[in-house]
């Protein structure tokens, strides 16, 4: 589906009011009346591998949803992740996103059966250059899928339970904030399947944990590590006792973010992502350019007034 069409569909979401409305979802996943309504709405489409709900005003909850396949990421899921986050990027009803997963594990990484299909496709030609072109396109598509989280202007909070393997680590390191359950475990497993990780972990993990030494150890060995180590090295910032409290905590954080000025939050994300790759001076130049506009916005005036009057919930216009 084109990004244009997806944007249009996501924009059809019912107005955000407290409560649960569902867009582009798996009807059987959420047995609320809202799900049925949304599923029946003409023009609504369904993602096959993602379930999307809007549990709080301006908060979208995206779930990896191939529970019977341990949320292994097949081609369809790669495409849908990209479409979904690109669509939410321009959706004015979305200010913060929680990404979690249904079923036993967060994700078993790339779908290995799908990889076998790719092998079949490659065997259709004997020409190594043509095989190379096929692989180039696939890798680029998968990279873009993961990068859609980082490029999405809205903060993305990932909530990991149980296994987060291979491509799962690529995925979560492209998010803004990571939480997990105490039974979560992580593995940069690519070397174990005979490849170098190529969709983001090697670039983002060292920055996320702030240690080249540990990142290289994890990437060279593919050793599994648990929630406690993920927390102590800074890969995740909070650990919850179970999945229910994890998702509740992640949604509460998303709600807190969604109550802030969307201009302030989205500019903050843009500048923090930019500053990861640039010098301090370049980062300062970048934010100065943004803020010479943003400090004239009604959000700024309203937020300052709210501070002075101790109004803890100023209402900001959609962005
Ligand atoms: C261009 C390339 C871009 C990106 C590349 C990314 C690379 C990677 O993602 S590398 C990592 C690949 N994933 C794995 O190696 C995971 C292997 N699986 C496991 O380690 C375990 O299954 C587990 C995730 C820890 C879960 O363990 P458990 O709960 O005990 O379940 P199992 O009994 O092991 O598995 C049940 C069932 O699922 C099948 N399965 C597991 N993982 C995958 C997978 N990634 N793809 C496809 N299928 C998977 C497993 O074979 C079992 O199948 P049965 O038919 O029931 O035997």
TrEMBL record:
InterPro entries: ClpP/crotonase-like_dom_sf, Ech1-like, Enoyl-CoA_hydra/iso, Enoyl-CoA_hydra_C. GO terms for molecular function: delta(3,5)-delta(2,4)-dienoyl-CoA isomerase activity. Its main location: other. One of its GO terms (biological process) is fatty acid beta-oxidation. Pathway: Lipid metabolism; fatty acid beta-oxidation. It catalyses: (3E,5Z,8Z,11Z,14Z)-eicosapentaenoyl-CoA = (2E,4E,8Z,11Z,14Z)-eicosapentaenoyl-CoA; (3E,5Z)-octadienoyl-CoA = (2E,4E)-octadienoyl-CoA. GO terms for cellular component: mitochondrion; peroxisome. Pfam families: ECH_1. The keyword Transferase does not apply. It is found in: Peroxisome. CDD domains: crotonase-like. It comes from the Eukaryota. Keywords: Acetylation, Fatty acid metabolism, Isomerase, Lipid metabolism, Peroxisome. Belongs to the enoyl-CoA hydratase/isomerase family. Isomerization of 3-trans,5-cis-dienoyl-CoA to 2-trans,4-trans-dienoyl-CoA. This is Delta(3,5)-Delta(2,4)-dienoyl-CoA isomerase, mitochondrial. It comes from Drosophila persimilis (Fruit fly).
């Amino acid at each position: 589906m084109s990004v244009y069409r997806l944007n249009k569909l996501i924009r059809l979401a019912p107005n955000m009011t407290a409560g649960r409305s569902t867009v582009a979802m798996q009807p059987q996943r959420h047995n609320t009346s809202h799900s049925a309504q949304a599923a029946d709405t003409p023009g609504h489409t369904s993602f096959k591998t993602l379930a999307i709900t809007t549990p709080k005003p301006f908060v979208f909850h995206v779930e990896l949803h191939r529970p019977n396949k341990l949320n292994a990421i097949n081609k369809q899921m790669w495409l849908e992740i990209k479409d979904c986050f690109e669509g939410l990027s321009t959706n004015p009803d979305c200010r913060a996103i929680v990404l979690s997963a249904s079923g036993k594990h967060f994700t078993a990484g790339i779908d290995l059966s799908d990889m076998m299909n790719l092998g079949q496709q490659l065997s259709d030609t004997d020409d190594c250059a043509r095989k190379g072109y096929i692989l180039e396109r696939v890798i680029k598509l998968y990279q873009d899928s993961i990068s859609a989280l980082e490029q999405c202007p809205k903060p993305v909070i990932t909530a990991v339970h149980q296994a987060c393997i291979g491509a799962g680590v690529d995925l979560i390191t492209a998010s803004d904030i990571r939480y997990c359950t105490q039974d979560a475990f992580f593995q940069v497993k690519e070397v174990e399947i005979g490849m170098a990780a190529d969709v983001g972990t090697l670039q983002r993990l060292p920055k996320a944990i702030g240690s080249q030494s540990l990142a290289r150890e994890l990437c060279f060995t593919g050793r599994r590590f648990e929630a406690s180590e993920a927390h102590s090295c800074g890969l995740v910032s909070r650990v919850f006792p179970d999945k229910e409290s994890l998702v509740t905590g992640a949604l509460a954080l998303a709600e807190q973010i969604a109550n802030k000025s969307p201009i302030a939050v989205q500019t903050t994300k843009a500048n923090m992502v930019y500053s990861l790759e640039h010098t301090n001076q370049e980062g300062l130049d970048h934010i100065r350019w943004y803020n010479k506009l943003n400090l004239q916005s009604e959000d700024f005036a309203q937020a300052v007034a709210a501070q002075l009057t101790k109004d803890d919930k100023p209402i900001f216009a959609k962005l």
